[in-house]
Write a structure and sequence with these properties.
The protein is built from 13 helices and 22 strands. By secondary structure, it is an alpha+beta fold. The chain is elongated and about 100 Å long. The two termini are 68 Å apart.
Length: 437
């Protein structure tokens, strides 16, 4: 084949450019087979793109947005141009890759399996999380070396799986280390997302040449049984007056029973429904110290009167092993507790919604003499039983950043050591150091 036949078999490239019509293409290898780049061709790189030249298998140069003349006077591409611009020898050794540097938005992430966390209200719970993230290629050369290789067309679906796995792993670690309840986490979605961007971007850039531009948490979900319990608790708060609510439900049941088709004698069904409703209301009334009347509803005439207002210097009501007492001071109750630490001591004062355990009343807990060997301990050094407040305080001081939890007889669950008054006093009462980011 003569030189003119060789020239006819090839197409001269005067303008090298790439217009992307997709929303998910990250890298596109420009076709140079059977095409000749001549001295004087032009390279056009648009905003949101980068052009990477490969010369004999090695990365030669990266061109940002702009128009570039491909001639031998441009020393930046001379090494690349000399391999493909003259002689028209096949195969061509030079390659051109266009890299999309725009943001790829609305990439979904979610935990395929629930992860475990300790909640102060519900104990250990299983949690799922969902959201979205955005990223862009900020180091095209590193992205080609570490991720793309020789792939002629690289799309987002080929890397998002790996990105999601790394993000979910880091997110679950951040949530567990935050030591916050599920209900409190809902108010920290923005802060957690911003923290994830700052934490993960250096790793993504060094390994993939990618920058994480946004990380959003859309929802945290609990197991169905926990969500059902929350719904029931919310419903109880909305209902308010249980007596009136029971009467309403009873009347509704009677009406539905009477209107049910083919259900036997409507009057008998209505009477049975009324009897059941009356029995339920009476049981409710007895538990509340009142009396139910079908015409007047729940009467509180026999309910016990509220306790008298507290006296000056003796403002607490006490219920414990020695019985119930009124008008006791914090010091008097502290003496009762110190005399029987294993007992169930509860306190009430004017304005409180209900009774409280003694260790949740700071002015009393601060006066109770610490027990010498009454705590179970779990922390970095392992688990131990029968430790005193001083023993646990020394463990916290030896490892301030560790997770130190304690439990004692009568408690509903484990507590951070710094939240226990007799231990906090020995530590100076200061808050624990913030968790590492």
């Amino acid at each position: 084949m003569g030189i003119f036949d060789s020239i006819k078999a090839k197409t001269f490239l005067e303008v090298i450019e790439w217009t992307d019509s997709t929303n998910d293409t990250i890298v596109y290898r420009f076709p140079t087979h059977q095409k000749a780049i001549t001295d004087g061709s032009k390279l056009v790189v648009r905003e949101g793109q980068a052009a990477v030249f490969i010369n004999e298998g090695q990365l030669s140069d990266v061109f940002g947005p702009g128009s570039w003349d491909l001639d031998t006077r441009n020393t930046r591409i001379l090494s690349f141009f000399t391999t493909i611009g003259y002689g028209f020898d096949d195969p061509y050794k030079g390659e051109i890759y266009f890299v999309n540097t725009k943001q790829f938005t609305d990439q979904k992430w979610g935990t395929s399996n629930p992860f475990m966390m300790r909640d102060p209200d519900f104990g250990v719970v299983r949690v799922r999380a969902f959201g979205s993230y955005c990223f862009r290629v900020t180091d095209p050369a590193q992205f080609l070396r570490q991720v793309v290789g020789t792939d002629h067309l690289f799309k987002t679906g080929e890397i998002t799986g790996q990105l999601k796995r790394k993000l979910i792993s880091s997110f679950t670690d951040a949530v567990v280390e935050a030591r916050m309840g599920v209900l409190d986490l809902g108010a920290q979605f923005t802060e957690l997302g911003d923290g994830m961007c700052k934490q993960m971007t250096p790793w993504f850039t060094s390994h993939y040449g990618i920058t994480l531009t946004d990380f959003a948490i859309v929802n945290l979900s609990l197991p169905p049984n926990v969500e059902k319990a929350l719904d029931e608790r919310t419903s109880m708060g909305i209902v308010g007056d249980m007596g009136a609510y029971t009467q309403f439900q009873t009347a509704k049941a009677i009406r539905e029973s009477a209107s049910a088709p083919g259900g036997g004698n409507p009057m008998m069904q209505a009477g049975m429904g009324f009897a059941v409703g009356n029995q339920m209301a009476n049981q409710m009334a007895q538990s509340q110290g009142g009396q139910f009347n079908p015409q007047q509803g729940l009467s509180q005439g026999h309910a016990p009167p509220p306790p008298p207002p507290p006296q000056q210097g003796a403002s607490f009501h006490y219920s414990g092993p020695s019985g119930q007492k009124q008008g006791l001071s914090a010091a008097q109750i502290a003496a009762e507790i110190s005399a029987n630490r294993s007992g169930n001591h509860n306190i009430w004062a004017q304005g409180w919604a209900g009774w409280k355990p003694w260790d949740q009343v700071p002015e009393i807990a601060s006066l109770v003499a610490p027990s010498q060997a009454s705590f179970h301990y779990s922390g970095p050094s392992g688990q131990a039983q029968g430790l005193s407040a001083a023993d646990i305080a020394s463990k916290v001081q030896a490892d301030p950043g560790g997770a130190h939890n304690v439990w004692a007889t009568g408690w509903a669950g484990w507590k951070p050591a710094r939240d226990v008054p007799e231990i906090a006093v020995l530590l100076g009462g200061g808050p624990p150091p913030p968790p590492p980011m």
